[in-house]
Amino acid sequence: MLIPNNPKIRPKIRPKIRPKIRLIDARAASLIDDIQSQLVSLSNSGDGIFLQRFFKTGPGQYGEGDVFRGIRVPVLRKLSKAQQDIPLEIAELLLHSAYHEDRLLALLILVRKYANTDEMRRTSIYTLYLDNTRFINNWDLVDVSAEHIVGAYLSDKSQEPLYQFARSCSIWERRIAIIATFHFIKRCKFDETLRIAEMLLTDKEDLIHKAVGWMLREVGKRDIQREEAFLSVHYKQMPRTMLRYAIEKFPHDKRLRYLKGTVYPFIL
After folding, report:
1. What is the domain range of residue 258?
2. pTM
3. How many angstroms separate the CA atoms of 107 and 64, rounded?
4. Are 66 and 57 in contact, with CB atoms under 8 Å apart?
5. 53-87 residue pLDDT tens
């Protein structure tokens, strides 16, 4: 059967190396059916009900309409190890599934593939990821993959794609922008994190507030002066949740000063 490529196009940030239409043969169709049969066998309806509440899938909530099989993450990680050699086309089909766990499995597989392949293949994985961001549509899907694929790929290239994501109307692409910088943070490179955090200071979404605060906290774990220099300038305009996440590990008295607005600009 013919599988059309995602019509979403990003000409400025998307390497043009993949065809617009791919042919999926009978063997590939059989493989995807086998993987999904395994997922069905691992499902738990009680867990599925719990996860649909936990990930806010009700009308008007951030995960509206998402469907869960009821499979826990450790089980999916184990399955991703067993299935890590599947073709990229199969991983992409999994990523298009209506089921949340199928998409999470696809991303776990892509992360494994990315970590264990050459630069050409990594470009293919990165491009696939960018082609399919509309399927990476919950915070856990972003958090498990963005730093390991987007951050890793852009680590020695222009980071302009991150700024394009930060300006996106999609909450998930904005979250990708900030979470991808975790790859840089772990290597004690903070500039992109702080610039994107500044771009997202006035974002309206709670899930962005949490993500930015989390990344600022991670900066502080490695360089508290860089975090405080940023906070002392911006903390008064930060959403409260973002600030609370950012200062979570601070001593109690210092947290109170930030919350009360009595911290003065910090000069490095």
Report:
1. 160-268
2. 0.89
3. 20
4. yes
5. 999 999 999 999 999 999 999 999 999 999 999 99
